[in-house]
Design goal:
Blueprint lengths: L1 H25 L9 H5 L13 E4 L3 E4 L2 E2 L8 H10 L5 H13 L5 H9 L6 H11 L5 H7 L7 H27 L14 H9 L5 H13 L8 H11 L4 H12 L7 H16 L5 H13 L17 H12 L5 H20 L10 H10 L8 H23 L11 H8 L1
Antiparallel strand pairs: 1-2, 2-3
Helix pairs in contact: 3-18, 4-8, 5-6, 5-8, 6-8, 6-12, 7-8, 8-9, 8-18, 9-10, 10-15, 10-18, 11-12, 11-18, 12-18, 13-16, 13-17, 14-16, 15-17
Protein backbone atom coordinates (compact mmCIF):
# COMPACT_ATOMS: atom_id res chain seq x y z
CA UNK A 1 0.00 0.00 0.00
CA UNK A 2 2.95 2.34 -0.50
CA UNK A 3 1.27 4.40 -3.23
CA UNK A 4 -1.94 4.81 -1.22
CA UNK A 5 -0.02 5.83 1.92
CA UNK A 6 2.08 8.26 -0.10
CA UNK A 7 -1.04 9.95 -1.48
CA UNK A 8 -2.52 10.22 2.04
CA UNK A 9 0.79 11.52 3.43
CA UNK A 10 0.69 14.18 0.74
CA UNK A 11 -2.80 15.27 1.87
CA UNK A 12 -2.13 15.08 5.60
CA UNK A 13 -0.42 18.47 6.21
CA UNK A 14 -3.17 20.33 4.37
CA UNK A 15 -5.91 18.47 6.29
CA UNK A 16 -4.38 19.15 9.69
CA UNK A 17 -3.54 22.76 8.79
CA UNK A 18 -7.15 23.39 7.76
CA UNK A 19 -8.43 21.99 11.06
CA UNK A 20 -5.92 24.01 13.09
CA UNK A 21 -6.66 27.19 11.14
CA UNK A 22 -10.42 26.90 11.54
CA UNK A 23 -10.12 26.27 15.28
CA UNK A 24 -7.65 29.12 15.80
CA UNK A 25 -9.30 31.76 13.62
CA UNK A 26 -12.97 30.87 13.89
CA UNK A 27 -13.32 28.43 16.75
CA UNK A 28 -15.73 30.68 18.67
CA UNK A 29 -17.83 31.64 15.63
CA UNK A 30 -21.52 30.79 15.96
CA UNK A 31 -22.78 28.87 12.92
CA UNK A 32 -26.27 27.92 14.04
CA UNK A 33 -28.96 28.16 16.65
CA UNK A 34 -30.73 25.05 17.90
CA UNK A 35 -34.47 24.88 18.43
CA UNK A 36 -36.15 22.64 20.96
CA UNK A 37 -37.88 20.79 18.12
CA UNK A 38 -34.41 19.81 16.87
CA UNK A 39 -33.33 18.57 20.30
CA UNK A 40 -36.51 16.50 20.54
CA UNK A 41 -36.48 15.57 16.85
CA UNK A 42 -33.24 13.61 16.61
CA UNK A 43 -30.94 16.61 16.03
CA UNK A 44 -32.52 17.06 12.59
CA UNK A 45 -30.48 19.47 10.44
CA UNK A 46 -28.17 20.53 13.31
CA UNK A 47 -24.73 21.09 11.72
CA UNK A 48 -22.50 19.32 14.21
CA UNK A 49 -20.28 16.85 12.31
CA UNK A 50 -17.32 17.15 9.98
CA UNK A 51 -17.51 14.94 6.87
CA UNK A 52 -14.96 15.48 4.11
CA UNK A 53 -15.79 12.39 2.04
CA UNK A 54 -19.21 13.31 0.67
CA UNK A 55 -22.07 15.78 0.86
CA UNK A 56 -25.79 15.72 0.10
CA UNK A 57 -27.75 18.77 -1.02
CA UNK A 58 -31.53 18.99 -1.21
CA UNK A 59 -31.54 20.15 -4.82
CA UNK A 60 -28.80 17.95 -6.26
CA UNK A 61 -28.24 14.83 -4.17
CA UNK A 62 -25.02 12.98 -3.43
CA UNK A 63 -21.55 14.26 -4.29
CA UNK A 64 -18.45 12.18 -3.58
CA UNK A 65 -15.60 14.60 -2.87
CA UNK A 66 -17.61 17.27 -4.69
CA UNK A 67 -18.16 15.08 -7.78
CA UNK A 68 -21.84 14.36 -8.59
CA UNK A 69 -22.56 10.66 -8.14
CA UNK A 70 -23.96 10.40 -11.68
CA UNK A 71 -20.49 11.33 -12.97
CA UNK A 72 -19.00 8.35 -11.14
CA UNK A 73 -21.25 5.50 -12.28
CA UNK A 74 -18.60 4.03 -14.60
CA UNK A 75 -15.93 3.88 -11.89
CA UNK A 76 -14.94 0.79 -9.92
CA UNK A 77 -15.46 0.51 -6.14
CA UNK A 78 -11.67 0.62 -5.77
CA UNK A 79 -11.74 4.01 -7.53
CA UNK A 80 -14.49 5.23 -5.21
CA UNK A 81 -12.73 4.15 -2.01
CA UNK A 82 -9.51 5.83 -3.14
CA UNK A 83 -11.48 8.97 -4.03
CA UNK A 84 -13.30 8.97 -0.68
CA UNK A 85 -10.02 8.73 1.22
CA UNK A 86 -7.78 11.03 -0.81
CA UNK A 87 -10.05 13.43 -2.66
CA UNK A 88 -8.85 12.30 -6.10
CA UNK A 89 -9.30 9.31 -8.37
CA UNK A 90 -6.42 6.84 -8.56
CA UNK A 91 -4.03 6.48 -11.47
CA UNK A 92 -3.51 3.04 -13.02
CA UNK A 93 -0.71 2.07 -10.61
CA UNK A 94 -2.69 3.19 -7.56
CA UNK A 95 -5.79 1.36 -8.79
CA UNK A 96 -3.81 -1.84 -9.30
CA UNK A 97 -2.26 -1.53 -5.85
CA UNK A 98 -5.54 -1.12 -4.00
CA UNK A 99 -7.19 -3.91 -5.98
CA UNK A 100 -4.29 -6.22 -5.10
CA UNK A 101 -4.51 -5.15 -1.46
CA UNK A 102 -8.21 -6.04 -1.29
CA UNK A 103 -7.53 -9.37 -3.00
CA UNK A 104 -4.76 -10.18 -0.51
CA UNK A 105 -7.28 -9.92 2.35
CA UNK A 106 -10.15 -11.71 0.61
CA UNK A 107 -9.58 -15.14 2.15
CA UNK A 108 -11.42 -15.37 5.47
CA UNK A 109 -10.03 -17.46 8.36
CA UNK A 110 -11.85 -20.71 9.21
CA UNK A 111 -12.58 -19.34 12.69
CA UNK A 112 -14.95 -16.77 11.16
CA UNK A 113 -16.87 -19.42 9.23
CA UNK A 114 -17.08 -21.54 12.39
CA UNK A 115 -18.69 -18.62 14.24
CA UNK A 116 -21.19 -17.90 11.45
CA UNK A 117 -22.15 -21.54 10.94
CA UNK A 118 -22.71 -21.97 14.69
CA UNK A 119 -25.46 -19.34 14.73
CA UNK A 120 -29.13 -20.43 14.75
CA UNK A 121 -30.36 -21.25 11.27
CA UNK A 122 -32.88 -18.40 11.20
CA UNK A 123 -30.42 -15.69 12.32
CA UNK A 124 -30.96 -12.48 10.36
CA UNK A 125 -28.25 -11.94 7.70
CA UNK A 126 -27.44 -8.48 9.13
CA UNK A 127 -26.76 -10.04 12.53
CA UNK A 128 -24.43 -12.49 10.81
CA UNK A 129 -22.63 -9.67 8.96
CA UNK A 130 -22.18 -7.64 12.13
CA UNK A 131 -20.85 -10.68 14.02
CA UNK A 132 -18.58 -11.68 11.14
CA UNK A 133 -16.98 -8.23 11.00
CA UNK A 134 -16.68 -8.07 14.78
CA UNK A 135 -15.00 -11.49 14.85
CA UNK A 136 -12.36 -10.11 12.46
CA UNK A 137 -11.31 -7.65 15.19
CA UNK A 138 -8.76 -10.26 16.28
CA UNK A 139 -6.69 -9.18 13.28
CA UNK A 140 -6.74 -5.43 14.01
CA UNK A 141 -3.46 -3.71 13.25
CA UNK A 142 -4.76 -0.59 15.00
CA UNK A 143 -5.29 -2.37 18.30
CA UNK A 144 -1.81 -3.88 18.10
CA UNK A 145 -0.25 -0.50 17.26
CA UNK A 146 -2.11 1.28 20.06
CA UNK A 147 -1.15 -1.35 22.63
CA UNK A 148 2.47 -1.07 21.47
CA UNK A 149 2.40 2.67 22.19
CA UNK A 150 2.34 4.05 18.65
CA UNK A 151 2.21 7.83 18.29
CA UNK A 152 -1.32 9.23 17.98
CA UNK A 153 -0.24 11.05 14.83
CA UNK A 154 0.68 7.73 13.22
CA UNK A 155 -2.37 5.69 14.22
CA UNK A 156 -4.02 6.49 10.89
CA UNK A 157 -1.53 4.15 9.17
CA UNK A 158 -2.72 1.19 11.25
CA UNK A 159 -6.30 2.34 10.63
CA UNK A 160 -5.65 2.19 6.90
CA UNK A 161 -4.39 -1.39 7.29
CA UNK A 162 -7.58 -2.28 9.17
CA UNK A 163 -9.74 -0.64 6.48
CA UNK A 164 -8.08 -2.77 3.81
CA UNK A 165 -8.47 -5.93 5.92
CA UNK A 166 -12.13 -5.20 6.60
CA UNK A 167 -13.03 -4.25 3.03
CA UNK A 168 -11.01 -7.07 1.53
CA UNK A 169 -12.82 -9.64 3.67
CA UNK A 170 -16.33 -8.16 3.91
CA UNK A 171 -17.35 -9.24 0.41
CA UNK A 172 -16.23 -12.82 1.13
CA UNK A 173 -18.03 -12.82 4.47
CA UNK A 174 -21.22 -11.34 3.00
CA UNK A 175 -21.28 -13.73 0.05
CA UNK A 176 -20.68 -16.64 2.42
CA UNK A 177 -23.56 -15.47 4.62
CA UNK A 178 -25.85 -15.47 1.59
CA UNK A 179 -24.95 -19.05 0.76
CA UNK A 180 -25.02 -20.35 4.34
CA UNK A 181 -28.20 -18.59 5.42
CA UNK A 182 -30.27 -19.40 2.33
CA UNK A 183 -29.03 -22.95 1.65
CA UNK A 184 -27.12 -22.08 -1.51
CA UNK A 185 -24.23 -24.43 -0.75
CA UNK A 186 -20.80 -23.87 0.73
CA UNK A 187 -19.19 -20.43 0.48
CA UNK A 188 -17.41 -19.83 -2.84
CA UNK A 189 -13.74 -18.95 -2.50
CA UNK A 190 -12.40 -15.72 -4.04
CA UNK A 191 -11.08 -15.99 -7.60
CA UNK A 192 -7.59 -14.71 -8.35
CA UNK A 193 -7.49 -11.99 -10.98
CA UNK A 194 -10.97 -10.57 -10.35
CA UNK A 195 -11.47 -7.11 -8.92
CA UNK A 196 -13.44 -6.41 -5.72
CA UNK A 197 -16.95 -6.17 -7.16
CA UNK A 198 -16.49 -8.95 -9.74
CA UNK A 199 -15.32 -11.28 -7.00
CA UNK A 200 -18.29 -10.38 -4.85
CA UNK A 201 -20.70 -11.01 -7.73
CA UNK A 202 -19.05 -14.37 -8.41
CA UNK A 203 -18.95 -15.50 -4.76
CA UNK A 204 -22.66 -14.78 -4.33
CA UNK A 205 -23.38 -17.33 -7.05
CA UNK A 206 -26.62 -15.59 -8.04
CA UNK A 207 -26.12 -15.30 -11.79
CA UNK A 208 -23.52 -15.93 -14.49
CA UNK A 209 -24.85 -13.03 -16.55
CA UNK A 210 -22.15 -10.43 -17.18
CA UNK A 211 -24.69 -7.69 -16.51
CA UNK A 212 -25.16 -9.08 -12.97
CA UNK A 213 -21.51 -8.29 -12.37
CA UNK A 214 -22.13 -4.81 -13.80
CA UNK A 215 -25.08 -4.31 -11.44
CA UNK A 216 -23.08 -5.35 -8.38
CA UNK A 217 -20.34 -2.90 -9.33
CA UNK A 218 -22.87 -0.10 -9.77
CA UNK A 219 -24.64 -1.02 -6.53
CA UNK A 220 -21.39 -0.84 -4.55
CA UNK A 221 -20.56 2.55 -6.08
CA UNK A 222 -23.98 4.15 -5.53
CA UNK A 223 -24.42 3.11 -1.88
CA UNK A 224 -20.83 3.79 -0.81
CA UNK A 225 -21.34 7.00 1.18
CA UNK A 226 -24.03 9.56 2.03
CA UNK A 227 -22.40 12.23 4.22
CA UNK A 228 -21.78 11.84 7.95
CA UNK A 229 -25.13 12.43 9.63
CA UNK A 230 -27.00 9.25 8.66
CA UNK A 231 -27.42 6.65 11.40
CA UNK A 232 -24.79 4.16 10.24
CA UNK A 233 -22.08 6.72 9.50
CA UNK A 234 -22.67 8.74 12.65
CA UNK A 235 -22.82 5.65 14.87
CA UNK A 236 -19.53 4.40 13.46
CA UNK A 237 -17.95 7.83 13.92
CA UNK A 238 -19.05 8.08 17.55
CA UNK A 239 -17.67 4.60 18.34
CA UNK A 240 -14.45 5.30 16.44
CA UNK A 241 -14.00 8.63 18.24
CA UNK A 242 -13.33 6.64 21.42
CA UNK A 243 -10.33 5.13 19.54
CA UNK A 244 -12.14 1.87 18.90
CA UNK A 245 -10.81 0.19 15.76
CA UNK A 246 -12.75 -0.07 12.50
CA UNK A 247 -14.06 -3.58 13.23
CA UNK A 248 -15.85 -2.38 16.37
CA UNK A 249 -16.94 0.82 14.65
CA UNK A 250 -18.24 -0.60 11.36
CA UNK A 251 -20.05 -3.43 13.17
CA UNK A 252 -21.79 -0.83 15.34
CA UNK A 253 -22.75 1.27 12.32
CA UNK A 254 -24.19 -1.71 10.47
CA UNK A 255 -26.41 -2.45 13.45
CA UNK A 256 -27.92 0.98 12.82
CA UNK A 257 -28.16 0.30 9.09
CA UNK A 258 -30.31 -2.74 9.91
CA UNK A 259 -33.11 -0.52 11.23
CA UNK A 260 -36.33 -0.15 9.23
CA UNK A 261 -35.91 3.65 9.09
CA UNK A 262 -32.47 3.33 7.48
CA UNK A 263 -31.07 0.48 5.40
CA UNK A 264 -34.08 -1.81 5.66
CA UNK A 265 -36.06 0.49 3.37
CA UNK A 266 -34.84 -1.17 0.17
CA UNK A 267 -36.46 -4.49 0.98
CA UNK A 268 -39.68 -2.75 2.06
CA UNK A 269 -39.89 -1.06 -1.35
CA UNK A 270 -39.61 -4.35 -3.19
CA UNK A 271 -42.07 -6.00 -0.83
CA UNK A 272 -44.55 -3.27 -1.78
CA UNK A 273 -44.02 -4.01 -5.49
CA UNK A 274 -44.45 -7.76 -4.96
CA UNK A 275 -47.66 -7.09 -3.03
CA UNK A 276 -48.87 -4.89 -5.89
CA UNK A 277 -48.21 -7.73 -8.32
CA UNK A 278 -50.34 -10.05 -6.18
CA UNK A 279 -53.05 -7.39 -5.80
CA UNK A 280 -53.44 -6.92 -9.57
CA UNK A 281 -52.39 -10.37 -10.71
CA UNK A 282 -49.83 -8.78 -13.01
CA UNK A 283 -48.93 -5.31 -14.24
CA UNK A 284 -52.04 -3.06 -14.31
CA UNK A 285 -52.86 -0.09 -16.50
CA UNK A 286 -51.53 3.34 -15.52
CA UNK A 287 -55.00 4.45 -14.53
CA UNK A 288 -55.63 1.45 -12.27
CA UNK A 289 -52.28 1.95 -10.54
CA UNK A 290 -52.92 5.68 -10.18
CA UNK A 291 -56.27 4.99 -8.52
CA UNK A 292 -54.67 2.46 -6.18
CA UNK A 293 -52.02 4.97 -5.10
CA UNK A 294 -54.65 7.63 -4.36
CA UNK A 295 -56.63 5.18 -2.22
CA UNK A 296 -53.51 4.07 -0.37
CA UNK A 297 -52.53 7.65 0.47
CA UNK A 298 -56.10 8.53 1.45
CA UNK A 299 -55.98 5.63 3.89
CA UNK A 300 -52.98 7.16 5.65
CA UNK A 301 -50.36 4.87 4.14
CA UNK A 302 -47.21 5.92 2.30
CA UNK A 303 -45.75 4.84 -1.02
CA UNK A 304 -42.44 3.14 -0.06
CA UNK A 305 -39.42 4.59 -1.82
CA UNK A 306 -40.89 8.04 -2.42
CA UNK A 307 -39.76 11.00 -0.38
CA UNK A 308 -36.41 11.59 1.34
CA UNK A 309 -35.37 13.28 4.58
CA UNK A 310 -32.94 15.56 2.73
CA UNK A 311 -33.55 15.46 -1.03
CA UNK A 312 -36.09 17.58 -2.86
CA UNK A 313 -35.33 16.12 -6.29
CA UNK A 314 -35.21 12.63 -7.79
CA UNK A 315 -32.38 10.80 -6.06
CA UNK A 316 -29.61 10.62 -8.70
CA UNK A 317 -28.86 7.09 -7.51
CA UNK A 318 -32.41 6.11 -8.51
CA UNK A 319 -31.71 7.67 -11.91
CA UNK A 320 -28.55 5.56 -12.24
CA UNK A 321 -30.45 2.34 -11.50
CA UNK A 322 -33.31 3.34 -13.80
CA UNK A 323 -30.83 4.01 -16.60
CA UNK A 324 -29.18 0.64 -15.93
CA UNK A 325 -32.53 -1.12 -16.34
CA UNK A 326 -33.14 0.76 -19.58
CA UNK A 327 -29.69 0.16 -21.08
CA UNK A 328 -29.74 -3.56 -20.20
CA UNK A 329 -33.36 -4.11 -21.33
CA UNK A 330 -34.51 -5.33 -17.91
CA UNK A 331 -38.27 -5.59 -18.19
CA UNK A 332 -39.83 -8.21 -15.93
CA UNK A 333 -43.01 -7.34 -14.02
CA UNK A 334 -41.19 -5.89 -11.00
CA UNK A 335 -39.07 -3.61 -13.18
CA UNK A 336 -42.20 -2.54 -15.07
CA UNK A 337 -43.85 -1.68 -11.74
CA UNK A 338 -40.78 0.35 -10.74
CA UNK A 339 -40.98 2.32 -14.00
CA UNK A 340 -44.75 2.83 -13.78
CA UNK A 341 -44.55 4.02 -10.17
CA UNK A 342 -41.89 6.56 -11.17
CA UNK A 343 -44.25 7.88 -13.82
CA UNK A 344 -47.36 7.95 -11.62
CA UNK A 345 -46.47 8.47 -7.94
CA UNK A 346 -44.84 11.93 -8.18
CA UNK A 347 -47.93 13.19 -10.02
CA UNK A 348 -50.24 11.68 -7.39
CA UNK A 349 -48.23 13.08 -4.47
CA UNK A 350 -48.04 16.51 -6.11
CA UNK A 351 -51.77 16.52 -6.79
CA UNK A 352 -52.47 15.43 -3.23
CA UNK A 353 -50.30 18.30 -2.02
CA UNK A 354 -48.95 16.72 1.15
CA UNK A 355 -45.44 15.63 0.16
CA UNK A 356 -42.52 18.07 0.31
CA UNK A 357 -40.63 15.72 -1.96
CA UNK A 358 -42.72 13.57 -4.33
CA UNK A 359 -39.66 12.07 -6.03
CA UNK A 360 -38.16 8.57 -5.63
CA UNK A 361 -35.10 7.73 -3.59
CA UNK A 362 -32.59 5.00 -4.38
CA UNK A 363 -34.61 2.32 -2.55
CA UNK A 364 -37.43 2.60 -5.08
CA UNK A 365 -35.25 0.88 -7.70
CA UNK A 366 -32.45 -1.14 -6.13
CA UNK A 367 -34.47 -4.11 -4.86
CA UNK A 368 -36.28 -4.64 -8.16
CA UNK A 369 -32.97 -4.99 -10.00
CA UNK A 370 -31.50 -7.45 -7.48
CA UNK A 371 -34.69 -9.50 -7.71
CA UNK A 372 -34.52 -9.52 -11.52
CA UNK A 373 -31.22 -11.43 -11.45
CA UNK A 374 -32.47 -14.01 -8.97
CA UNK A 375 -31.61 -12.57 -5.55
CA UNK A 376 -35.13 -12.98 -4.15
CA UNK A 377 -34.20 -13.17 -0.47
CA UNK A 378 -35.37 -9.78 0.82
CA UNK A 379 -33.55 -10.11 4.14
CA UNK A 380 -30.21 -10.04 2.36
CA UNK A 381 -30.72 -6.72 0.60
CA UNK A 382 -29.51 -4.68 3.57
CA UNK A 383 -26.33 -6.80 3.64
CA UNK A 384 -25.68 -5.67 0.06
CA UNK A 385 -26.18 -2.09 1.26
CA UNK A 386 -23.86 -2.71 4.21
CA UNK A 387 -21.00 -4.06 2.09
CA UNK A 388 -21.09 -0.90 -0.01
CA UNK A 389 -21.55 1.50 2.91
CA UNK A 390 -18.53 -0.04 4.65
CA UNK A 391 -16.41 1.87 2.12
CA UNK A 392 -17.83 5.21 3.18
CA UNK A 393 -17.68 4.41 6.88
CA UNK A 394 -14.06 3.24 6.65
CA UNK A 395 -13.02 6.31 4.66
CA UNK A 396 -14.70 8.66 7.15
CA UNK A 397 -13.00 6.91 10.07
CA UNK A 398 -9.63 7.12 8.28
CA UNK A 399 -9.96 10.84 7.59
CA UNK A 400 -10.89 11.53 11.23
CA UNK A 401 -7.89 9.47 12.37
CA UNK A 402 -5.64 11.53 10.11
CA UNK A 403 -7.07 14.72 11.58
CA UNK A 404 -6.84 13.49 15.15
CA UNK A 405 -10.50 14.35 15.70
CA UNK A 406 -11.82 14.57 19.24
CA UNK A 407 -14.10 12.13 21.00
CA UNK A 408 -17.77 12.88 20.30
CA UNK A 409 -19.48 14.11 23.45
CA UNK A 410 -22.58 16.30 22.89
CA UNK A 411 -24.49 17.77 25.81
CA UNK A 412 -27.78 16.14 26.69
CA UNK A 413 -30.70 17.99 28.28
CA UNK A 414 -33.56 17.10 30.58
CA UNK A 415 -37.13 18.30 29.97
CA UNK A 416 -36.75 20.58 33.00
CA UNK A 417 -33.56 22.11 31.63
CA UNK A 418 -35.19 22.74 28.25
CA UNK A 419 -38.15 24.47 29.88
CA UNK A 420 -35.78 26.53 32.00
CA UNK A 421 -33.85 27.65 28.93
CA UNK A 422 -37.07 28.74 27.20
CA UNK A 423 -37.99 30.89 30.19
Amino acid sequence: MDLFKARLDEKLPQLRAERTSLLKEHGDSQITTVAIEQVLGGMRAVPALLCETSSVSADEGLRIRNIPILDLTTQSPEDIFFLLCTGSLPNDAERAEISAAFAAKAHVPDSIWNVLKALPKDTHPMVMLSIGILAMEKYSAFRSAYEAGASKDDLWKATLEDCITLLGSVTTIAAGIYRIRFDKGEPIAPTAGLDWSANFATMLGVSNNKSWEDLVRLYLVLHSDHEGGNVSAMTSHVVSSALSDVFYSVSAGLNGLAGPLHGLANQECLRFIVDLHEEFGGVPSDEALREYCFKRLAGGQVIPGYGHAVLRVTDPRFTAFYNFAESHDLNDDNVQFMKKLFKIVPEVLTEQGKAKNPWPNVDAASGSLLYYYGMKEFEFYTVMFGVSRAMGICSQILVHRMLGSSIVRPKSMTFAELRSMVK
